[in-house]
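Methods: holo model generation. Sequences were used as deposited, without trimming of termini or removal of tags, and paired with ligand SMILES retrieved from the corresponding compound records. Each pair was processed once, and we did not select among multiple samples. The sequence and S-adenosylmethionine SMILES for this entry were:
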Amino acid sequence: MGNSHSTDTPRHSSLPNIPVIERSSPALKFPRSITSQNSSSLSLSGNSKFSSAGKLSLDSLPVSSIHPLQNGSSLLAPSIKSPGSSRRNSFSSFRVTTSPEPEKYVWIAGKRFHNVEGSGYLFPCDDEEIDRMHLQHFMVRFAIQGNYLAPVSDSLRNGAAVLDVGCGPGSWTMEIAGEYPKSEVVGIDMTSMFPTEIKPINCQFMRTNILEKLPFDDDSFDFIFMRFIQMGIEEEQWDTVLEELVRVAKPGAYIELVESDLERYRVGPCIANFDKRLTESLKARNMDPYVARRLDQLLIRHGLVNVKKRFISSPAGEWAGKLGQLTLQSWKAKAEALKPQLCMSWNTTQEQYESLMNACLSEADIHKSYENIHFAYGQKPILQRT
Ligand SMILES: C[S@@+](CC[C@H](N)C(=O)[O-])C[C@H]1O[C@@H](n2cnc3c(N)ncnc32)[C@H](O)[C@@H]1O
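and the model returned the structure below.
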C-alpha cells in the first residue's frame, strides 16, 4: 500500500439544552434501504473525477460484489436463533454466545441513541443512521472498487471464518457472505441494527460490546475487519480492543482496520471550524481524533506482521463526479447524525448548527474539499515449532 499522509499538514480537534429521555425499546428488526434500486444506482461502473485529490491505486484490488439481497435468491435464509444461549452452531470453528438482555436507548432531540454502559459512541442508532451507514459503505466500496485491501481473496473463496467488528446494519458483512458462499461470516455490534431474519445463510449477527471480552474462542477467525468505529473507542481502549481481535484471530489470519481522518482537506473556513470543534469534542471524550493515521502502528504494537497501510482521498461535491456526490451525501448525513450530541457539546442551537452545516456543504464544491480514509492490515504471526 502507499504512503499514509497527505501533503496537507494535518490540524486537529465536547456536546445545548436538548432534552434527554431514557427508555428501553424493542430492537430494530430489519435494515432499511438495502434495495435493488439503492444498490444498483450506486453500482461500480465508471470513473469519478477524483484524481485531483485522489491517491488511490487500483492495483490488485478485489472486485466488489453485488449485495446479496439484490439477487433475491437462494442465498437468503432464515436466521438461526437461540436467545440467551451459548452454543456451537453451523459455524464449526468458533463458539457464539447470544446476548439475551433487552437493549436500552436514550432519546436526544428526537434521535435514538444506544445506552450501553461504558460506551461514549456518538452516533445514533435509528433508521436514518442505518441509511447513513449503507451510504458510507457504498461510498468506500466505490472508492476502492472493492470491500477490503488485505490479501485474503483466495482464503475467502476457499472458505474462511470472517468477523466484522462493529458491523452496523451489516452492509459489508452480507456482501462478503454473498460473494464468498464457502465462507462463514459473523457481524457483531452493540446495537442490533443488523437484520435478524433476512440474510445470507452463511452470515449471522450478534449483539456484543467490543469493549468487553469477545464471546469467541482463541484462534477462531481467518479474517477480521473493523471499520469506522473510532467514535466508539476511547484512546486507551484501542489496545484492549486490539488485544481481543488478535486473540480471536487464527495464526496467519489478517486483521484490517479502516478509519477516516476527521480533519478534511482543502477546506473553507466553515469546514475548518466544524472539524476543529468536532476534534475538541472528541478529545473531551478521551477519543483520539487522529487514530486513522496510526492504524498501522496499532497493528504493529499488537504483534502483527506484514503490516501495510494506505489511504485514499475521497473528494466531496459535484466537481468530483459520482464519488464526489456520494462523499458529499455522506458528509451531510454524518453532520445530521452528530447534530444532537454536538449541539449539546458546543452549547449551540439546532438552527446555529444547521446553518454551519449548510455552509460547510456549500464550501466543498468551492474549495474542492476531500477527506482521507486510512486502511491498515497485518497478519497474526504463525508460531514456529522449535
Ligand atoms: C459508523 S458504524 C460502522 C458500521 C460498519 N462497520 C461499516 O463500516 O459500515 C460504527 C458501528 O460501531 C458500533 N459500535 C460502536 N461502539 C461499539 C461497541 N463498544 N461495541 C460494539 N459495537 C460498537 C456502532 O453501534 C455502529 O454500528
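The chain has one domain: 20-379.
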